Amino acid sequence: MGKHDGSWTSHWIEKQGGSGEENRWKEDERSECPKAAMSAFFFWLRENRARIKKDGMGVADVAKAAGEEWRVLKDKSKWEKLADKDKQRYESDMAVYKKK
After folding, report:
1. What is the 3-state secondary structure (H, E, C) of 24-72?
2. Are residues 45 and 93 in the same domain?
3. 5 and 24: one domain?
4. Which residue range forms the structural domain that includes residue 88?
5. How far apart (Å, rounded) are the C-alpha atoms in residues 25 and 22?
6. Which contacts qualify for 29-33: CB closer than 8 Å, 24 or more apart?
7. In whole angstroms, what is the distance from residue 36 CA to residue 4 CA?
8. How far apart are alpha carbons 65 and 7 in whole angstroms?
9. Which end of the chain, N or C, is less packed with Cβ atoms under 10 Å?
10. What digits encode the pLDDT tens for the residues 19-44?
């Protein structure tokens, strides 16, 4: 059995107990589900990520620096309003989605 002869995929599918069609159906079902609401922090981060990110910083480093800035930020009302509006959008979209 060679490293890339494809037989491992059929073995894996047998171990999973199916043809794989069930998983494809679940993925299709989730793709129609409304996108979750963003938090105030993520609205703020979307606006400020470019300023925070410096050369050589990884994702974890950016997240840590952003978290520290967010923690000491005094006025978060702008982003909290955006998050509330997005939460309302999500709830109304979910109500429509659940009726399907």
Report:
1. HHHHHHHHHCCCCCCCHHHHHHHHHHHHHCCCCCCHHHHHHHHHHHHHH
2. yes
3. yes
4. 35-99
5. 5
6. 32/97, 32/100, 33/97
7. 38
8. 46
9. C
10. 556 666 555 666 789 999 999 999 99
pLDDT digits (tens, 9 = 90+) for 53-89: 999 999 999 999 999 999 999 999 999 999 999 999 9
**Is residue 52 scored above 60 in pLDDT?**
yes
pTM over 0.70: no
pLDDT score of 32: 82
Q: 66 and 94: one domain?
A: yes
Tell me the two tokens of residue 36. Answer: 């979750």
